[in-house]
Design goal:
Elements (H helix, E strand, L loop, with lengths): L15 E2 L8 E2 L7 H20 L8 E5 L5 H14 L4 E6 H9 L4 E6 L4 E7 L2 E7 L5 H7 L5 H11 L5 H12 L14 E5 L3 E5 L1 H6 L19 H8 L2 E4 L8 H13 L2 H4 L19 H11 L1 H7 L1 E2 H7 L13 H4 L19
Helix pairs in contact: 1-2, 3-11
Length: 358
């Protein structure tokens, strides 16, 4: 979280809260719990953000939430209720993460791969209109945690960041062949060196070298990648292929981008795609931030545009009247003049956290 107009977040913390008498922290982002529990967790977590990290009055600040387009409505509605009813924020804007990534580059067409912890999304934006969204649930950072066993999740996450890496295409294919070959006829490449990982200052966890590279191969197992991308019209497909944006924390694994491009170039030579794609040119943009902060930076840029932000945000007055928020999948939304702060004098919001004004 952070402030609009700044180049980086003020803090990056786990989305979890600690409860008395509970040994393990409780994850805030959960979709399979009831509304009362979720409301309680979100209230405590956002209170910590405002009064421990940001140190601002929530009533004086508009809120921009960078979200996934596949975020469940149940979670969005509960989060909005916490912000409006408990913290009494002036307005809330839900900004799709892939659109915010485009905003950092000043372009209106791109294929955005958001490879995060719980899911990977391939979102296609052509002239700022969403063409398709592919949810590749198996291609996610959380899959690495499940493969690596029953070690505590925070330790596994640190091991993944510090020791794991992505092999090149040829080596990766050999690793996959050896891993899934039931006849043991495929020979595994020579593994990288083993690593010793200290635990609690007393114990040492020995990490086998074969785990360091093979565990990441779960990200490149093909399943449903061909469902939507190859069905687009040729003109848009060529432009999207030349405007690729890779974001998300899992994309920061060493060797990830190189392997991804090698996989794409290998697939495009196959008959299934060779006749569809008239161009074999693929270009990846270099955003002005680390992959895990690109969407946040786009939200910070959008939040600094106060006139536009006021005309696109959901006001507290609207929410108090209706008790709901518009959803992209809902067709019975109210008129814009009722939904947004159109024509209203905005309060003096979004000042910087520090100022030289007297």
């Amino acid at each position: 979280c952070g402030f609009a107009g700044e180049t980086g977040p003020r803090c990056v913390i786990p989305s979890e809260v600690k409860k008395p008498g509970v040994s393990k922290p409780i994850r805030v982002v959960q979709y399979n719990i009831n509304t009362e529990e979720l409301y309680s967790y979100l209230k405590e977590f956002i209170h910590m953000l405002y009064f421990r990290h940001l140190l601002v009055n929530p009533r004086d600040r508009r809120v921009v939430i960078v979200e996934s387009v596949l975020c469940p409505s149940h979670f969005r509605e509960t989060l909005t209720k916490v912000l409006f009813k408990y913290f009494e924020v002036p307005s809330v804007l839900f900004a799709p993460s892939h659109l915010m990534a485009l905003l950092t580059l000043g372009i209106n067409s791109a294929m955005v791969l958001d490879c995060g912890y719980t899911e990977s999304l391939v979102e296609l934006e052509y002239q700022l209109l969403e063409q398709s969204t592919v949810d590749t649930g198996a291609t996610k950072g959380q899959s690495l945690t499940s493969v690596m066993g029953s070690i505590p999740e925070d330790i596994v996450e640190d091991i993944k960041v510090r020791t794991c890496f992505v092999s090149d295409l040829q080596r990766g294919l050999k690793i996959q062949a050896a891993k899934f070959d039931m006849d043991d006829s495929s020979e595994r490449p020579t593994p990288p060196p083993d690593v010793d990982y200290p635990l609690d200052g007393e114990k040492i966890l020995h990490i086998n070298g074969s785990i360091r590279d093979s565990v990441v191969e779960v990200l490149f197992v093909q399943d449903n990648e061909e469902k939507s991308v190859a069905t687009l019209i040729l003109d848009s497909l060529m432009e999207l292929a030349e405007n690729l944006i890779i974001i998300g924390g899992t994309a920061m694994l060493p060797g990830f981008l190189h392997r991804l491009m090698a996989e794409i170039r290998d697939l495009v030579e196959k008959p299934k795609y060779k006749e569809i794609l008239a161009s074999k040119t693929f270009r990846v943009h270099v955003p002005p931030a680390k992959p895990n902060c690109v969407a946040w930076l786009g939200g910070a840029i959008f939040g600094a545009l106060q006139d536009i932000l006021g005309s696109r945000s959901i006001s507290k007055e609207y929410y108090n009247q209706t008790g709901r928020i518009p959803d992209w999948c809902c067709l019975n939304n109210p008129p814009l003049e009722m939904m947004f702060d159109v024509g209203k004098t905005p309060p003096p919001l979004m000042k910087r956290a520090f100022s030289t004004e007297k």
